[in-house]
Amino acid sequence: MKKWKRSARLVDMTQQLMSHPHRLIPLSTFAERYQAAKSSISEDLAIVHDVFREEGEGMLETVSGAAGGIRFIPRISDERARKLSERLCGELQNPARILPGGYLYLSDLLGDTALVRDIGCIFATVFHDRRVDAVVTVETKGIPLAYATAGQLGVPVAIVRRDSRITEGSVVTINTVSGSSKRLGSLSLSRRSLQEGARTLIIDDFMKAGGTVRGMFDLLEEFRAEVVGVGVMAESRAEERLVDDYISLATVDEVDVRERRIRVKMGTLFHGRD
């Protein structure tokens, strides 16, 4: 096997860690890969850790013992999270987003891969200590955010459908009632997509009264799963909220269709931080 130069070793090591967030990698894996002593690997990891910390990209966590190793924990600084949320609020205030019925056009934001990646990193930072086993979302617009968050946490994604599909195999289906319109509906989740008893993180793009999120709570109970957190990109002001404990990045206070005006403020993540 080739002998790696230290510069190349540092670059490759950083890439390996960032490509496998939250995965415990034994020092022996690096030692064998680079044909280097564990002491040299430890020195390299200390350099990588310092760079991550100084740049606000995350941290390295060391686990001691025979089964120990090193894992990369992605993090985003409060300053970067605030700037991103301020940008999101600015984007949401664009009156061109107003659609008939007072709905907002969000597809361009959810198609912005850099923005979605950063939002996923915010949620991964907020919920990094919840020991998440899987990220759960409802089709369809929340899917990019769910995958971005799950990628940073190193866990799978389970997608709740509004109608069952034959390709999903055996499914669990419940009936739901929308919190705002009181319309009847259903939510389904494949039995194979989520392990019983999993610790789940719900991610969604936009929450009104919270009826869909509340329905996901009820559906996950059928899997004996525990919801350890809820993260939404944006929420609208609602008189009746069916979900109490959640994190949002932006709050839409008002959509005035006649005046073509949208008022947006920072979400619940920043409450009490000003």
Molecular structure report:
The protein has 8 helices and 10 strands. The chain has 274 residues and is α/β, with parallel strands linked by helices. The protein has 2 domains: 6-74, Winged helix-like DNA-binding domain superfamily/Winged helix DNA-binding domain (Arc Repressor Mutant, subunit A); 78-270, Rossmann fold. The strands form 3 sheets. It has a 6-stranded mixed sheet with strand order 4-3-7-8-9-10, with helices on both faces. A hairpin with a 6-residue loop joins β5 (171-177) and β6 (184-190). α1 crosses α3 (38-55) and α6 crosses α7. 33% of the residues are buried. The mean pLDDT is 92. Pfam families: Pribosyltran (PF00156), PuR_N (PF09182). Homodimer. Residues 5-74 form the Bacterial purine repressor N-terminal domain. Residues 115-247 form the Phosphoribosyltransferase domain.
Summarize the SSE layout with pairings.
Elements: H1 6-19, H2 27-34, H3 38-55, E1 58-63, E2 69-74, H4 78-92, H5 107-110, H6 113-126, E3 134-138, H7 143-153, E4 157-160, E5 171-177, E6 184-190, E7 199-207, H8 211-221, E8 226-236, E9 247-256, E10 261-266
